Amino acid sequence: xxxxxxxAIASLDGYIADANGSFDWAAPDEEVHAYVNQLExxxxxxxxxxxxxxxxxxxxxxxxxxxxxxxYAEIWRAADKIVxxxxxxxxxxxxxxxxxxxxxxxxxxxxxxSPSAISIGGANLGGQALLAGLVDEIHxxxxxxxxxxxxxxxxxxxxxGLELAAERRFAxxxxxxxxxxxx
Length: 183
What we know:
Blueprint: E1 4-11, E2 15-18, H1 30-40, E3 43-49, H2 50-56, H3 67-78, E4 80-84, E5 96-99, H4 104-113, E6 117-120, H5 123-131, E7 137-143, E8 150-152, E9 162-169, E10 175-181
Parallel strand pairs: 1-6, 1-7, 3-4, 3-6, 4-5
Antiparallel strand pairs: 2-8, 7-10, 9-10
Helix pairs in contact: 1-3
Protein name: Deaminase
Organism: Kribbella soli
InterPro entries: DHFR-like_dom_sf, RibDG_C, Riboflavin_Biosynth_HTPR
């Protein structure tokens, strides 16, 4: 069975976007981006909500000259994507399908049939998966900034047992925490 991985880049106070919806403070430097690429390489399918998909679809045509960005674009393009949205009329990227409803049973079936890891992104969709007990691993990249409010990386009311599997500190002060869900 494939593992479902929730990954987020968050401020030290736990937000993936500030109160204005900005996350420009979360842009990874080259060292962090290279590490993200290493973590993302085994992902076979990305699960997104509509807003996260709109952000990530940049990688379909990204032409950034930086080697780490080009590598990430290749990783992203090679994976399947499932977008859960009731309002998005269509998807515009290759290897992507649109689903109207996110259901725990559907994700469980996907985990059972997938030969490789699955990543779920975005606070709303990731939160639903966490609350439903579907997530097997959590990767948090904590950025040394406090934004004071906005979109939380983890949903209210979530109680999950975790075991620290790995941690890494980067020169920029970003800290990566990798947890296995234990319950």
